Amino acid sequence: MIALLPGLLKEARRTRVETDRVPIQLEWNTAIAEEIAACGPLGIKTVLASAHLAIDASEADALSRLDAQYGALFLTHDFVEGREAEAQGPAPVYHGN
Known about the structure:
This protein is an all-alpha fold. It has helices spanning 5-14, 22-37, 41-56, 59-74, 77-88. Helix 1 packs antiparallel against helix 2 (22-37).
């Protein structure tokens, strides 16, 4: 997923439509993409699974499983790494476990 983001950003910049609103929207979308790219791979995978469940099943099903999904993330090394990095200042180094 993270490997796709630079390509998505490049494509978004290439296909810019000329309106007053698009540059603001592009900046907003770019900021979101950069925020996602900074997240751990397990968190991104969990969010995508939840989003796909909401699309494929229903929003109620997705929301009912969200606590369990996040609970599983709290038990990972990446979660601990992210919180420690947040508290101490350096960028986290995620390993997907």
